[in-house]
Amino acid sequence: MSLTLKRVVLRVDGETHIHETSVELAARGFNILLGPTLAGKTTLMRLMAGLLKPTAGEVWFDGRNVTAVPVRRRRVAMVYQQFINYPHLSVFENIASPLRVERVPATELRSRVGRIAELLKLTALLDRRPAELSGGQQQRTALARALVKDADLVLLDEPLANLDYKLREGLRDELPRLFADRDCTVVYATTEPVEALLLGGYTATVEEGRITQFGETGTVYRRPMDLATARAFSDPPINTAPVLKRGNRIELTESVGWPADGRLAGLADGSYTLGLRPHLVQPARNTAARADWVPIEGRVSIAEISGSESVVHFEVQGRTWVSQSHGVHGFAVGEIAAFKLNVARGLYFSPDGRCVSAGTA
Amino acid sequence: MALVRLKGLRHSYRQQPKTDADWAVKRLDLEWADGSANALLGPSGCGKTTLLNIISGLLRPSEGEVWFDEHDVTTLPPDARNIAQVFQFPVVYDTMSVYDNLAFPLRNRGIAPADVDARVREIATLLDLDAMLEQRAAGLTADGKQKISLGRGLVRSDVAVIMFDEPLTVIDPHLKWRLRSKLKELHQRLGRTMIYVTHDQTEALTFADQVVVMNEGTVVQAGTPQELFERPRHTFVGHFIGSPGMNVLPATFADGVVRFAGHPVAVATPPRTPPAGATLEIGVRPEFVRFGPDGIPVRVLKVRDSGRYRIVETQHDANTIKLLIGEDQPLPSDTAHLRFDRAHTQLYADGWIAS
Which end of chain B is more exposed for a tag (fewer CB within 10 A), N or C? Predict the structure, then answer.
């Protein structure tokens, strides 16, 4: 069950919606499309499903060119952000509807609906109408309908976005499990980097109508190929700052610098952009900040304390840095505070945005 | 600005409420200090929106009173209460400029043009809207429009209280960070009484100094984010706040010793003798569980990577215990032992903290 986009392009009224994209999704895997709203995630899904025909390029499924095959002749299931159920049908009939279309015999239909309802904890609700369900139950009904029909390709377009925080947490846990032993390829769109990480599998970062990188989720997060990918895959947003490599030193400001040794030794002298995720910037007084990290001082502009962690914004020479740390660390707005940078884990980008060095671990 | 007090408040949508379940908001007393940043946090259907509508005057409570400072406003309609509200979806006039949108609530109240201009420009600067004041609102992105909604809520300097109803739900994560920080900054600068209603713990905990957690029409805990995190009064708070939520494990109590599956567990404060027949549970957050050389024996079931740390799911008999470990910390294979941080381990009886 492999899905491949080969040099796919989509133009609408002369405007390019999807730039030339080639990607081979993980067969039977959980594939995530990660990117902000309007990046092109839904459009890519519609191209994969056959709901949109590419302007150029081909869509291959299981070694077969399906570019011209209409969606109804493919085995595709789709779940949207808005729960879509038939309001006049019971939960049972909602789930059974795709099987009725396929004229599945009654006994088989009952057992398949029963099995999927059990899996999604809907058994007790089968006689109810959608309006009598909570949001989470309605979305589970929509998911059950997508799962019951043994599709080859399941497309989930931000399916948890409209749910309460805690429901989202629960379903996010269940979803990869649900698909673990099914013979289908799953594509899941989200705007949230942490959601992508927790779901695991493979991730394609999507920015302005193109896939910037595709690979194993942890790898894309830790070894982004460019600045766009690093930005798309960081929540809170990644800190970036210009640095200068001169001889055996990296200089951030006149007074803040560190040795350009190890992985940095081979870099040519010149300007780079340093990318440092907020958890790699720690308050100096926090025990998590190690002695060998690089000290820096700044004026605190915002301190957000959430009970379990502190997010502190501070200014250094007109540039805002964000530090994210475990525990409660109180700071007064306006105070000059000391922080430490774990530069060993920093990402370095050349002026054209390519990542030229990624930290260890 | 005002001190907001709810006295002996109760509300039911039914004509003649009989059972406990008929009350959307069960009897409660609450007080929000003048100039404070507050959140009302809970799942859908917990009663938080009912409470919000009672404060704004859209709903008359079945029982009890609403006071702003020394005034009983219980019977006053919304427009006589002097409040500002920001909703989940932007409320802007598409045909007006950004400037006129911000000026509208002021002009509406007959404020002198010079004062209107000064206020609009001040708020626009705070929200980084200066450059687009002359633009028409119609052409703006969703977050741009929501910023205008926030601005309209904040522009009047005479409001008693500003209420936010899930204001960031429709915003992308990156912009959410920016707007959330902005709101926090605005509160710190303007010092108005603000009440922020949400189901999203991150938003509630980062914005507010005081958080009221609601479930099934009752206030289960009111406290600072730190209190809610470190010492949840009820297992619901432990579960609802934190991601993943608190581990809740079956417990026994005899001869002054709390045990889980036969293993003694040290808890933060020596528990009172719980009522006979109460269901006893130990609550400990994944943040306060560590691997150790000895302790509760477990099997490692699953590891999930969240970037900054890993969520490890372990099992002892039929009980799942989750813990968090740093991304560079080593992970034991297969079998291991767990230790709970005593200062953050609590005993609960029938859901409520027993110490």
Answer: C
